[in-house]
Amino acid sequence: MKVGEMVGMAAADAWAARARSLVSLAGIALGVAVLVVIVALGLGVRGAVLDEVVQRLPLDTIEVVPKSVNLGLIKLGGGSILGGRVIDDGTVASLGAIPDVSAVYPKLEVKLPLGARGGESLLGKSLYADLFVNGLPEELVRAEVGDAFADSTDFLPVVISSQLLELYNSSVASTLGTPQLTPQTLIGIEFDVWIGRSLILGQQGARTTGRERARVVGVSRHAVKLGASLPMATARRLIAKYGEGNTSTYGSVILKAHSAADVPAITRAVRAQGLDVDQTAQQASDLMSGATALASLVGVLVLVLAALNIAHSFVAMLAERRRELGILRAVGASRGDILGVVLLQASFLGAAGGVLGVAAAWLVCTIADASASVLLPDFPFKPKSFFALPSWLALAALLAAVLAACLGAAWPAIRTARLRVTDALAD
Amino acid sequence: MTLLAASNIIKEVRDGERTARILDGVSLELAAGERVALVGPSGSGKSTLLHILGALDGDYKGEVRLAGTPLEGLSDRARSRLRGRDVGFVFQAYNLVARATVAENVALPSRFNGSHVSVEAVREVIDRVGLSGKADRRPHQLSGGERQRVAIARALVQKPKVVLCDEPTGNLDAETGDKILELFDTLTAAGVGLLIATHDRAIADSSRRELKLKDGKLS
Lengths: 427, 219
What we know:
Order of helices and strands of chain B: EEEHEEHEHHHEHEHEE
Structural class of chain A: alpha+beta
Number of strands of chain B: 10
Strand content of chain B: 25-35%
Number of strands of chain A: 13
Shape of chain B: globular
Oligomer: heterodimer
Distance between the termini of chain A: 25 Å
Number of helices of chain B: 7
Largest interface: A-B, 23 and 26 residues
Order of helices and strands of chain A: HHEEEHEEHEEHEHHEEEHEHEHHHHH
Distance between the termini of chain B: 23 Å
Largest sheet of chain B: 6 strands, mixed
């Protein structure tokens, strides 16, 4: 039987049984819609968290950290306490010597009690907060900030993270009634940095106290998340002037590979040196993917029920058409022809249900996003859309719908195709 | 030339513990251009024999050669192809697809065997069985006799080598029955072999041979 004939016959059969077809189609559409909405929500939230909250690194970049022991909720810091390796200048040099590493960017920890006060000109009132600071290589931040991020004896040039800006805008500003800020309005803002005492650390780690003037020179994804980052030379100078600790201990090191394909080998080499690779983004991604997969089971369950409904519907429909199918067999239809026509009919229902389901899911996502923007209060990292509906998801949902419909119709189709012609005609 | 040959056909049917032998060593031949009548009382196995000869029923012992091809051991696909291409089957109960028109019913075999039958060819065979102007009607809009003629048209449209008929004139009035007999004559004249299971004496008398089936045996 020619494919065109089979398609025509399957379409005619679906139309002839349109009441049953509609019920089957609605079941498939519901399953697909639930599945797509859940996966789209998972993808949307995952994307927002990884891009805005965690700010994952590019694929050709990893962040090396001292080894730590993960005890579930508690993560014990590594370094020499647990026999791991502390990151010093020697370690940075050996990391730079790993094959296919194209650049090394150490992040210097400034273990000083610090506090920041200022912002009256911009915010209308002076604010105080404990300050956490690290030192970054200028070349790491240059692409985002330019040459302004360079050591200066006149002031402390600082960059802050976009996460900190988001947290301020979505929670602090609304609570304190201060204006919202943008990266542009922040640049040039100066404030005082009190060194040698803070609310949390007291005077721990400081040799002496003092005050320095700091100036915001930009916003960087590499800046410490809840604090400020200084040029490496500035940070070293600050530690030398006020601190009593080792200026050459780094919290982490960013390694850039020649290409993303080199990253696995570099990761192995890093671990061989007694260090670890920061897995925060990967763990967050895995956690949310797992949660999405679990939630997707609801959609899969609805699809399975839809497939069972199709099976039930096809059993009844094919029983009604038993004699007619026997006639087709008598005039030359093979078992394969019958099987093909029935499965094609099911796949039409699946495809139509899939398209309807994806359309319904898109509508639900759009309405939910519109409602969320109006009804939900602003909160940190609130995304513009909670849903991501990429074309591959729509295509996968469509395929799942066709597959579910065909699986549902498979057993009734096989049973019908195996029917003896004379038995069918005897009905 | 022999178009259809059956040798020692045995057909048994299980009914619980009991096995009933419907056909008991039936052998026959049908030549090109020959019309043979198969007569016998109801329940003698005429329809069963036609089903076996027409490759509708593969559950039997013995050998059948249809248009030179042995049916035993053929795949379902090959049997189906043979059934659609070389055999025309006229059923006593018409066996028309209720939701298809007359023309669609007649053209049905061509949908499965890949052959192209033109709209004109379908119209022509519909005209030949006396259903001109009724090509777009559905079976429920036709009388019993007209439905039988649609079934005959469907059996002829592929120009088969063998036509097997199960009581083809049983539901027809005398005039239409005569027309169908005339049509059969033109078919045999064209070399088609006809095997007709019938109670109609007129058909039996006008056939070249008459085979009597009783208790599953031919005489």
